Automatic annotation (TrEMBL):
Keyword Repeat carried by entry: yes
KW Transcription (keyword) present: no
Domain called C-JID: residue spans: 188-325
InterPro entries the record matches: C-JID, Leu-rich_rpt, LRR-SigEffector_domain, LRR_dom_sf
Name of this chain's protein: Disease resistance protein (TIR-NBS-LRR class)
Alphabetical keyword list: Leucine-rich repeat, Repeat
Taxonomy of the source species: Eukaryota, Viridiplantae, Streptophyta, Embryophyta, Tracheophyta
Length: 341
């Protein structure tokens, strides 16, 4: 909150033990030291409310906040080389128009209210994603109230969510992980992406699954909900979640459980429709033996919101996620899809 601070001493970049640097609200600050080779332990850098346009490459950095930055138009292209960055927050950057490829290790991105944001790089996450090992399971990418996004940007976000769901399905199967893995993606839109092979108008979806739909290669479920905020004229106070109740039934038994698709913690007005995409593992199905694998099964899904006033789910989608032998995309195929986009 030092509103008259205009510059920082160059020797700041020599602070070897510094772990957290908070410059929030220094509204006249336009730069930080560029020589930072000695800053090997800096983990948190908060630059919200400043005018800084370029971030020095700090390899150790894990959390970066650039919210309320009115000077930044294009986020720098070398951000994908911030190999340890897990959290990037850029809320209400009113002049931001472009996002480059992001680091493969990024787990949380929030660009809420960046209303002039038009495009994001394809692929949304660095190409190294396909060359190195598996990235972390947790993934939350929020583009709430980014109303100016081009359709290509929305396609890139959706394609990333699809790849992430497939990748999680493979990892959960290979490493026998049954919890803690999820995708939470949100962006302005009114169409369920075409890769959801079961879709319905409204908040209820009732697909019929063929025999042998449940086998050892099934690792997860991808869910999508289009939420309309047009009837909600009051600001949203606090947070709300998008949830789904699933009920599986066949001639030998039934199973019912609830799961989260996504959530928002930003108070204020949300005017346009938004697409929410989430992923859940199949641990509850694996632990339940009343749903035989040999019989056709009816699934009834009810999508709903919590604490969201008059907002409602207007369209929904569902897809079973299998490992490679049942349709999971190979790395080369996903890379090709990104190239086509």
């Amino acid at each position: 909150g030092c509103t008259e601070l205009e510059s920082l001493p160059k020797r700041l970049g020599k602070q070897k033990a510094l772990q957290e640097l908070v410059l929030s609200g220094c509204s006249k600050l336009e730069s930080v030291p560029t020589v930072v080779k000695d800053m090997k332990h800096l983990r948190i850098l908060l630059l919200d409310g400043t005018r800084i346009r370029k971030i020095p490459k700090i390899k150790s950095l894990k959390c970066l906040c650039l919210s309320r930055n009115i000077a930044m138009v294009n986020l720098q292209d070398n951000l994908k080389d911030f190999y340890n960055l897990k959290c990037l927050v850029m809320k209400n950057c009113e002049n931001l128009r472009y996002l480059p490829s992001l680091p493969k290790c990024l787990e949380y991105l929030n660009v809420y209210g960046c209303e002039r944001l038009e495009s994001v790089e394809n692929p949304l996450v660095s190409d190294r994603l396909f060359l190195d090992g598996l990235e972390k399971l947790r993934s939350t990418f929020l583009f709430t109230n980014c109303h100016n996004l081009f359709q290509g940007a929305k396609d890139s976000i959706s394609t990333y969510a699809k790849w992430k769901c497939h990748r999680l399905a493979v990892e959960c199967y290979e490493q026998d992980k049954v919890s803690g893995a999820f995708v939470n993606t949100c962006y302005p839109g009114y169409i369920v992406p075409s890769w959801f092979d079961h879709q319905a108008v409204g908040s209820v979806l009732e697909p019929r699954l063929e025999p042998h739909w449940y086998n050892t290669m099934l690792s997860g479920i991808a869910l999508c909900a289009v939420v309309s905020f047009h009837e909600n004229q009051d600001p949203i106070i606090g947070s709300f979640s998008v949830k789904c109740t699933l009920q599986f039934e066949n001639e030998d038994g039934s199973l019912r459980f609830d799961c989260d698709i996504g959530c928002l913690n930003e108070p204020g007005m949300i005017e346009a429709d938004h697409v929410f995409i989430g992923y859940v593992t199949c641990s509850r199905l694996k632990d339940h033996h009343s749903i035989p694998i040999h019989h056709p099964t009816t699934v009834k899904m009810k999508f709903h919101l919590t604490d969201a006033c008059k907002s409602k789910v207007v369209d929904c989608g569902f897809r079973l996620m299998y490992t490679q032998s049942r349709g999971c995309l190979l790395r080369e195929e996903v890379a090709a899809n990104f190239t086509k986009l």
